[in-house]
Design brief:
Elements: E1 2-7, H1 15-33, E2 40-46, E3 50-53, E4 58-61, E5 64-65, E6 74-77, H2 84-90, H3 94-103, E7 107-110, H4 115-120, E8 128-129, H5 136-142, E9 147-148, E10 154-157, E11 160-163, H6 169-180, H7 183-192, H8 217-228, H9 236-242, H10 247-258, H11 262-280, H12 285-291, H13 297-308, H14 312-319, H15 321-325
Parallel strand pairs: 1-2, 1-6, 2-5, 6-7, 7-11, 8-9
Antiparallel strand pairs: 3-4, 10-11
Length: 326
């Protein structure tokens, strides 16, 4: 029997507590229906007996207090809501408990923005991590020693797991079900919960938001120029000259401020504009390509797929408004 400890932090997202609880209890039922013994002992663990969430709309009753939960095989750190620093401050008492259990052999999985709580333990320093794409800039600012993997659905390193944004955590749950049971049980769970079992990227859902929460005014000027002139061809030398900075210094400062190279930033701005055009207009691939400043079809397709995980045609067919209406 494996003990699954689902933490109940202050400001947690209720679904990120209920869903793993539901998943592993359902898997127990699947196992029993096939003549096997249930595998998971699922417990809700918290600093208090009751935790009120979503402005007291929900009250979660914990099974065990931290001091009563002496061991665990898997710990889930659910997504949190509201300002993340406030959530970390409210849940400081959970952090040493997570660290102690991990040192004793427990594995730990964060769901979506729960990665901030897991990172606050220090366990992720020097390791890879996933979180919601929309929180990437804030995460990098708060935890520069953690390697955030853009667009990933699941990361795993040394018994530490994390998932991408929102419903992506269902894929992590399935991944762990397969690890602890077998492929057949994971497939059954995927069908029961209507989840695409092998989805491994949140790239097609990502919306690029250039990192501007820095104090380098010259680099911010370059960012704004790129975003306002993405239809034009531009070079690193031209942007450096615009900011009256030498090229090497400009490239170094740009990467430090934004987390992207200059070329990558230009590409991501252009592809974000292309995505919006595919979603809202009836323009064909070539028209959109020229609109965002590309003239080489192969290059456009390659960069588009690298950033979104889909070809331009696949993206257009998936998200175009009339297709959705149909």
């Amino acid at each position: 029997m494996k003990t699954i400890a689902i933490l109940v932090p202050e400001t947690a997202v209720i679904e990120a507590i209920a869903d793993p609880n539901y998943m592993f209890r359902a898997v127990n039922q699947f196992l029993q229906a096939s003549g096997r013994a249930p595998l998971f002992d699922v417990k809700l663990v918290g600093a208090t007996r009751e935790v009120k969430l979503d402005n007291s709309l929900f009250t979660v009753h914990t099974d065990l207090l931290l001091e009563e939960a002496k061991s665990a095989d898997m710990i889930f750190v659910p997504a949190i809501s509201g300002p993340v620093q406030r959530a970390i401050d409210l849940n400081r008492s959970l952090l040493p408990w997570i660290v102690d259990r991990y040192k004793e052999g427990a594995e730990v999985a964060s769901l979506c923005i729960g990665a901030f709580l897991l990172a606050a333990t220090g366990l992720l320093n020097g390791k890879k991590c996933s979180t919601h794409w929309n929180a990437a800039n804030e995460f990098r600012n708060m935890f520069p020693d953690v390697e955030l993997v853009d667009g990933s659905i699941i990361t795993e390193e040394q018994g530490l797991y994390s998932s991408g944004g929102a419903n992506s955590y269902w894929n992590l749950l399935l991944y762990l079900v397969e690890k602890y049971t077998d492929r057949d049980t994971a497939i059954l769970a995927s069908k029961y919960f209507a989840i695409d079992i092998d989805r491994d990227s949140q790239a097609s859902f990502m919306m690029f938001q250039g990192q501007k929460e820095h104090n380098d005014e010259a680099i911010r000027k370059a960012q704004e120029y790129i975003e306002n002139n993405y239809t034009e061809k531009m070079t690193v030398d031209e942007l450096a000259a615009l900011c009256t900075i030498g090229r090497r210094s400009f490239e170094r400062r740009f990467l430090k401020a934004t987390g992207n190279t200059v070329v990558t930033y230009i590409q991501r701005v252009k592809i974000e504009a292309a995505k919006r055009s595919f979603e809202k207009s009836r323009k064909n691939i070539s028209e959109v390509m020229y609109d965002v400043g590309y003239t080489d079809t192969k290059a456009f397709r390659t960069i588009f797929r690298k950033i979104t995980g889909l070809t331009p045609i696949e993206y257009r067919n998936k998200y175009r408004r009339e297709g959705a209406q149909a």
